[in-house]
Amino acid sequence: xxxxxxxxxxxxxxxxxxxxxxxxxxxxxxxxxxxxxxxxxxxxxxxxxxxxxxxxxxxxxxxxxxxxxxxxxxxxxxxxxxxxxxxxxxxxxxxxxxxxxxxxxxxxxxxxxxxxxxxxxxxxxxxxxxxxxxxxxxxxxxxxxxxx
Length: 148
Known about the structure:
CATH topology: Aminopeptidase
Largest sheet: 6 strands, mixed
Strand order of the largest sheet: 1-2-3-4-5-6
Order of helices and strands: EEHHEEEHEH
CATH class: Alpha Beta
Shape: globular
Number of domains: 1
Low-confidence stretches: 1-5, 144-148
CATH superfamily: Gcn5-related N-acetyltransferase (GNAT)
Helix content: 25-40%
Mean pLDDT: 88
Number of helices: 4
CATH architecture: 3-Layer(aba) Sandwich
């Protein structure tokens, strides 16, 4: 447990609850995740931290992975608390976890929000080159869609 300055902010090692997670997602403008999926994902995280202020979760971050590939996920800080070093505290905790739990040949990835690349570059992350673009798919309710 760590305390942050005069604001009495505490960083703790735990996952947010589904309710806390959904509230943070909404506050930062992210789409809502299905509650059942959110619960499973949060439960299956390798490592998570929450930042608490006055008994309220104001930020979180987590690491997911399988031993070869790891991803930093869900770095979120309530808008009223952004630009106060809270995201840095979250990333420091996640990077410390990775340093002590990940082998030297592992891949560590993340998807940075628009305009956030500079923040993650401070931690050694680089943007993928144009000739090696990544891809992703957002899985919507496939039972309702018909394939040809």
